[in-house]
Amino acid sequence: MTKNKNVLEWIEEMKALVQPDKVVWIDGSEEQLKEIRNISLACGEMEALNEEKLPGCLLHRTAINDVARVENKTFICSRKKEDAGPTNNWEDPKEMYAKLRRLFDGVMKGRTMYIIPYCMGPIGSPFSKVGIEITDSTYVVLNMDIMTRVGTDALKQLGDVSNDFVRGLHSKADIDEDNRYIVHFPEDNAIWSVNSGYGGNVLLGKKCFALRIASYQAKNEGWMAEHMLILGLENPQGEIKYVCAAFPSACGKTNLAMLIPPEVFAKKGYKVWTVGDDIAWLRPGPDGRLWAINPENGFFGVAPGTNIKSNPNALASTRKNTIFTNVVHNLDDNTVWWEGLDKNPPKNAVNWKGEKWDCTDGSKGAHPNSRFTAPAINCPCISSEFNNPQGVPISAIVFGGRRAKTAPLVYQARSWEHGVFVGSTMASETTAAAAGAVGVVRRDPMAMLPFCGYHMGDYFQHWLDMGKKLGDKAPKIFNVNWFRTDDEGHFIWPGFGDNLRILNWIIDRCEGKADAVETPIGYEPKPEDINLEGLDISMDTLKGLLNVDISLWKEEVAGIKEFYGKFGDRLPNELKEQLAKLEANLDK
Ligand code: GTP
Ligand code: SPV
Ligand code: MN
Fold first, then answer.
1. Per-residue model confidence as pLDDT tens digits over 413-464
2. Measured torsion, CA atoms of residues 579, 581, 583, 584, in degrees rounded to the nearest 10
């Protein structure tokens, strides 16, 4: 399929290591994918769903011990330990390669080795990058086909001589939890993943390449790879402004990216267009502004909670050619179900573990991190700019997370430097997207804690440098929190579509059309500037959501100091100054 010697030599080397029975190059053709679908069905990796209700859709269940990203088994193996920084696991690359070689040695004996050339970003875009993933999983092949642009087009994009491609090696091996490793060698452009079959660990184009490796490349090449959705907000005059938002895993990116405006806004002509729901690659354009592309070609979205009211666009995206992972299998009509889809859990069903499920016994039928893999073209609100090789110009960057208290509904940073401080000090309650405890507040700078492929202190510096480059054309920076709770633990803000009310203020601020009030932490809207029309929320409740509790923020400062302490002399001075300023503001 290619004459590229760099590719061919690497493939030969990997073949010698894993010793497959058979080798198949993925060309991206419909005939070949059909064949692989059939192999996947025959070997039991996938089950076919109801062709009338869910045409082209498949169901997959992972092993019970393999349902989320494994951050304690994820490594950044830069040559020098200090280049991985205090927030990443590190081992000496030589030792790590030796350990992994033992695990990969002969691992594909009796199996087929699939070679997937793929392109992150639109084919033909100067911002796109090519990867090649070797895998022994048909689940990976079929998911990569949805999530990226696979096959001959990707090889064409790489060309016959370039060595600039990410080398991804994956084997599910025995799904042995104790020997599960997700390892990145940024200086070698390489990712080795073994003993997992779960999305974020094995779809190597996604978090492994498009964030961990790409963030390292971006720092060296002067751009940014971020855990951000990209949306276009169209106003009644037909003007579209683009916003990027970084929220940690399972904190609302897919939902915000596909938002349907509340009726009063929809009637006036407001619309939201989805460019991306998880990852953004950003660069300064010829006009000096920051431009974003979505490197992905599909959505690997959280299933639970997705329904006709919360996110009809996501639901519509999953009605054909979609792969469902770890959801409930409804045996009556061979469809799927998950908690929060509707109020009618199927009576005759199998849960995510593959067991007969009794929906009245109080157990969850779908795993909390169950997912759908849906083609972006299925999305009713996909942006006309989705495939634009130049991307879209960004007006605002929004940070956010899950905070029951402390963080207000929305505030604006006073400057780019202050915005970098706000992003770097983000915290959020952990979710089921990663193995480990759920609901624990942890610092998650720019929602990149699990995804930054180098020293996070240098990453903060890179953000500051990008701001200097962009100057007064830099996007404005904001922070939001949809997740404040009352004393009974209920969310106070309705969220979902109603988040448009906040996006509107954000865009108005970027356009110089809305006022703000100064608080110790940044600019906040005047409560009367948030349009509450058609919403059952009082002005007092809104004021409560915007309240900055000084004593909680003093605790926050203590938490930030402790976190910043990890970075030693690689913490930029600008951020120390911002912290001092926040502390002084709170003492005023
Ligand atoms: P990843 O794919 O893991 O990166 O997640 P994500 O950031 O795309 O999160 P997603 O949009 O899938 O939402 C995760 C969960 O948060 C779902 O259960 C949603 O129902 C819930 N959620 C999303 N937006 C809101 C909101 O505005 N308010 C509330 N209360 N919940 C929300
Ligand atoms: C996330 O966890 O942020 C996801 C899902 O988007 S995964 O691809 O598993 O990383
Ligand atoms: Mn994500």
1. 999 999 999 999 999 999 999 999 999 999 999 999 999 999 999 999 999 9
2. 160
Atom 5 of ligand 2 has which residue's CA nearest to it?
Answer: 200
3-class DSSP string for 191-233: EEEECCCCHHHHCCHHHHHHHHHHHHHHHHHCCEEECCEEEEE
| Cα–Cα distance for residue pair 365/363, rounded to 1 Å | 6
Mean pLDDT score, 16-40? 98
Q: What proportion of the chain, given as a percentage, has pLDDT over 70?
A: 100
Closest to 200 in 3D by CA, of 69, 302, 324: 69
User: Which ligand is nearest the CA of 69, by number?
Assistant: 2
Q: Which residue has the tokens 């940044």?
A: 522
pLDDT at 135: 98
Ligand 2 atom closest to Cα of residue 68: 9
For Cα atoms 252, 256, 259, give the angle at the middle one, nearest 5 degrees.
140
Query: In this structure, what token pair is assigned to residue 485?
Result: 């709770």
251 an active-site residue? Answer: yes
- Scan for tokens 């959020």, then name that residue: 428
Q: Whose CA is nearest to atom 1 of ligand 2?
A: 249
pLDDT tens readout for residues 321-332? 999 999 999 999
| Catalytic position from the list 251, 379, 452, 510 | 251
Please enumerate, as own/partner, the contacts of 331-334 that have beta carbons within 8 Å and a separation of 24 or more.
333/50, 333/53, 334/49, 334/50, 334/53
Report the nearest atom of ligand 2 relative to the CA of 201.
9
With H, G, I as helix, E, B as strand and everything else as coil, classify residue 491: strand
Ligand nearest to the CA of 198: 2
Q: How confident is the model at residue 24 (pLDDT cuts 50, 70, 90)?
A: very high
Do the bridges between strand 328-330 and strand 392-400 make them parallel or antiparallel, or are there none, so unpaired?
A: unpaired
Q: Which two tokens stand for residue 507?
A: 């865009």
Give the SS3 label for residue 529: helix
Buried b (16+ CB within 10 A) or exposed e, 253-286: bbbbbbbbbbeebeeeebbbbbbbbbbbbbbbbe
Q: Which of 181, 202, 182 is nearest to 135 (CA)?
A: 202
Q: Which of 69, 83, 295, 80 is nearest to 182 (CA)?
A: 69
Give the side-chain half-sphere CA count within 13 A for 539: 5
Quick check: 471 and 288 in contact, CB under 8 A? yes
Segment 355-362 shows an average pLDDT of 96
Residues with CB under 6 A from ligand 1: 247, 249-255, 277-278, 301-302, 304-305, 310, 433, 482-483, 491, 495-496, 499
